Structure formats: C-alpha cells, structure tokens
Amino acid sequence: MNDFNLTFPCEASQLVRLRRGLAAWLDANRVDEDSRDILVLAAHEAAADAIEHALPCEHVDVQASLEGARVSIEVTDTGRGYFEELVAVDETHERRGGLILIRQLIDRVEIRSGTGGTTVQMSQPIPT
After folding, report:
1. How many other C-beta atoms can be found within 10 angstroms of the C-beta atom of residue 85?
2. What is the radius of gyration, based on Cα positions, of the chain?
3. Residues 92, 84, 53, 122: is their CA dihedral positive or negative?
4. Which residues pair with 64 in a beta bridge?
5. CB atoms within 10 A of CB 55
6. Which of 38, 56, 66, 88 has a CA that sits 20 to 30 A from residue 109's CA?
7. Alpha helix (H) ranges present in the chain?
8. Per-residue model confidence as pLDDT tens for the chain (128 residues)
9. Are 99 and 122 in contact (CB under 8 A)?
C-alpha cells in the first residue's frame, strides 16, 4: 500500500487529523491494534511537541511507510530546531513530556534538529 503523507498547520486542533489519518492507514495495512495505538500515540506526541516548542512553526509533515514487518514514521516541523540544545545538554527535559514517552514506546528513535526544523524519526517492528 502507498505511504502515508500528511502536512498540516502548526495548530493543536490539527492533531485529530493526524491521529485519524494515521490510524486508518495502519488499519488498511493490517497493522495489529496494539501496534497501531502505540504508533499513533508516538506520532501524536512528536507532532504535539513540534506545535508547542518549534517556534515559529509553519507546518508539520508526517510520513509513514511499511517495510516488511517494520513501520517507520517521520515527523518534521519547520520551526527553529529546539531539540538540539535539549538532547545535547539537558536530558532531564525528557523526564517530562512527549519525547520520553516516545522513547519508551518505540524501538528506534532518532532526532535531527537544526535551524530549518526538527525531524523525529521512529521505527517500530510489528507482528506479522
């Protein structure tokens, strides 16, 4: 099945579009319910963090793909790269908020941050 792609303005009201759209795509790809719920929650948290912290943020782009028994999701914002400092200097931030939850839920998480925005790349195995 085709990849999932959704771009939306940096507004919290848009997160419902992300959750519904990603859940429907995962269902169409026959991803089990538990994995679907985990992946939707992790994508929601990454997008919510972007909306809250990546200022100024014009839009959030979410892409997901299924490769064999693994789902990959990228959440990219257009705001100033705020994770750069947090990841390098202050791991205590992760004790409160979406990033620590994402790291607890998802097998592989990578964050790339810079002046052009931040990308949270997640990859999770799913039962076949």
Report:
1. 11
2. 14
3. negative
4. 4, 73
5. 12
6. 56
7. 15-28, 33-53, 83-89, 98-105
8. 699 999 999 999 999 999 999 999 999 999 999 999 999 999 999 999 999 888 888 999 999 999 999 999 999 999 876 554 444 444 444 444 678 899 999 999 999 888 788 999 999 999 98
9. no
Residues in CB range of 24: below 8 A, 6 or more apart: none
DSSP symbol at 94 = G
> Alpha carbon 108 to chain centroid distance?
12
pTM tops 0.85, yes or no? yes
- For tokens 């719920």, the residue is 37
8: left (phi over 0), alpha (psi -120 to 50) or beta: beta
Q: Please say whether the beta carbons of 4 and 31 come within 8 A.
A: no
Q: How many helices (H) and strands (E) does the chain have?
A: 4, 5
In one-letter notation, the amino acid at residue 44 is H
